[in-house]
UniProtKB/TrEMBL annotation:
Keyword Secreted part of the UniProt annotation: yes
Record-linked Pfam families: Self-incomp_S1 (PF05938)
Stretch forming the signal peptide: 1-27
Main localization, broad class: secreted
Keywords from the named record: Secreted, Self-incompatibility, Signal
InterPro entries (alphabetical): Self-incomp_S1 (IPR010264)
Cellular compartment(s): Secreted
Lineage: superkingdom: Eukaryota
Identification of the protein by name: S-protein homolog
Length: 143
């Protein structure tokens, strides 16, 4: 049978272990963020951004306005965020934060701008040109 001193020691050791794990996990899990800016003059766009764990809702962005969020990259470094982007010029679903984008373009802050031709992510790693994608579903010209 344990004495009260042994019980106290075990409880204190578990307390220290739990706190050190919490502090360590905060330090290990990198902070990251995404910003999406509407660069289409005289047009509002609609975006719906989400991950497998978080739904950030639907947002209407006027020209020049942005939607941004911050998060921690999961332990396995597999965090992904997607946005459905809809404009008068086209729409589509785009991976706005993925492990490959983080490695090749963004580091820990992915900066997206939405243009008439499609969304572009700023090259932060080498200050090279932005990587732009066409609309996955272009809107036909109105007659």
């Amino acid at each position: 049978m344990r004495t009260w001193k042994e019980n106290l020691f075990v409880s204190f050791a578990l307390f220290l272990l739990t706190n050190s794990l919490i502090i360590t996990s905060e330090a290990i899990l990198e902070k990251a963020g995404v910003i999406v800016t509407n660069k289409i003059p005289n047009e509002n766009i609609t975006i719906h951004c989400y991950s497998s764990e978080d739904d950030l809702g639907v947002h209407n962005l006027a020209y020049g306005s942005s939607f941004s969020w911050n998060f921690r990259i999961n332990f396995f470094r597999s965090t992904k965020f997607y946005c459905d982007i809809s404009t008068r010029h086209g729409y589509g679903n785009y991976g706005v934060f993925t492990p490959n984008l983080k490695r090749d373009f963004c580091y820990n802050q992915c900066e997206w701008s939405v243009h008439k031709d499609g969304p572009c992510v700023k090259q932060r790693r080498s200050e090279g040109p932005s990587w732009c994608q066409n609309w996955k579903v272009p809107q036909p010209p109105s007659s």
